[in-house]
Amino acid sequence: MFVVTRYRVPAEESAEFGVLAREALAALTERPGCREGRVGRSIDEPDLWVLSTLWKNVGAYRRALSNPEVKLRAVPLMYRCIDEPTAFEDLATWSPEQGLAIHESDLITE
Fold first, then answer.
1. In 1-110, where do the E strands start and end?
2. What tens digit of pLDDT does each residue of 31-57 get?
3. Domain 2-102 maps to which CATH number in 1.10.10.10, 3.40.50.460, 3.30.70.100, 3.40.50.1820?
């Protein structure tokens, strides 16, 4: 599963935000089950930033969020995120090693 949190950051706050975002990234990527993470900024809209992480499963992500160190270092930044869904399940992935992989949904559908 992967998590994408987006942020609107005024230009005058971008340097400070970058420091906070890197600290949040470090806290999250230190947790078990985190496979990858990144902080980025939109090329077309420089006030739009993103913090994205890849997790082994939703349980690992939820355990990470409840960790005291993550609460101290990452959650304060996350309070600034745009209010929208952030956690997604993988339905199709691609890598040079494995090529295209199709994944079953874990969601219950009726």
1. 2-8, 34-41, 48-55, 87-88, 92-95, 99-102
2. 999 999 999 999 999 999 999 999 999
3. 3.30.70.100
